[in-house]
Amino acid sequence: MTLPASKWLLIALSFCAARLVAADLVESHKIWDAAPHNAFTDLARFHDKWWCVFREGKGHVSPDGKVRVLRSDDGAKWDSAALLTSTDGDLRDPKITITPGDRLMLTAAIAYPPDAKVKHQSVVYFSSDGTSWQGPVMVGDPNMWLWRVTWHKGKACGVGYDTSGEKFVRLYESSDGRAFRPLVSRLFDQEHPNETSLLFLPDDTALCLLRRDGPKGTGLLGSAKRPYTDWTWKDSGTKIGGPHMIRLPDGRLVAGVRLYDGGARTAITSIDPQTGKLTELLRLPSGGDTSYPGLVWHDKLLWISYYSSHEAKTSIYLAKAKI
Question: Is residue 57 assigned to a domain?
Answer without folding.
Answer: yes
